[in-house]
Amino acid sequence: MLTLGTAIGGICKTHNPRDALRFVREAGFRAVELSDKNENAPLVLTYADIKDFEYVSFHAPTFPYANDPASRELLQRIEKIHDIRPLDCVVFHPDTVRDLSIFLHATFPVAFENMDWRKATHRTVEDMQRLMDYDSRFKFVLDLNHVHTNDDTLALGKKFYDALGSRLTEIHLSGFAGLHEPLFQTKQDTIINLIQDFSVPIILEGTGAPEELLPERLYVEHTAQEIIRRRAHMTRHTKKPS
């Protein structure tokens, strides 16, 4: 069964977070990724805003995290959301982190995502492996759009699964036509096909307007189900007779 959700960051550029969450619920999503990307404007929510979601993750602000007061204040803001409703995953961009030790005493589950082609670091399996080796509790978020920007053959996706599949806690999924675009528009089913295990929660990152939410959910759900059926059919027909 798919755990399919969407990020609200794009919609929050033009709507407040409570309205964004309402749009997400109305589009039929049971999972969501919250966003607090502005370190100067804390996300303010109540339990009622997120209680209906079965899975809630959180995309932390991009920030030069270090063992310092400013970083500790940001993590305390996330802990306040975590106290309202335990977060299933908190995602950080690793390329700006200056000191990983700041995360060692976090009360929430810490995860890092692979970066896109524009970033100087954490685009490769080797960089992400070193990061995961720092602490066995760190989890991995596989951003398939970022995979595509670094390797249009998509072989990098399999390499990430082979190396870090056991640490995988969430998938970020969107099309790529320049940045993060809806898959129902780009029709890049090969990106969806990179997913090896559809039981891992999937967060859609391509939508930036409320009217895009439902068509994106329906398109990804339909495509994922077709992939799952095709793989099951191939498995049945490749089994050797006993």
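The above is record 1. Record 2 follows with the same two-line structure.
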Amino acid sequence: MQLSYRGVKYNTSKPAVEVTEIQEVGHYRGATYHMHRAVNAPARQSSDVLKYRGAIVH
């Protein structure tokens, strides 16, 4: 998927995460919803060098 932020375009991909529905039910503003939990959530490995206002963030 190609995204852009302030005119800078970049590509990203959504990792496939398997979820399972659990028995818990939630309520929010009168609406009922069923909760989901990730089965095998992959560990995030970031090798990106981040910058904030010109400073490198670790």
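The chain has no helices and six strands.
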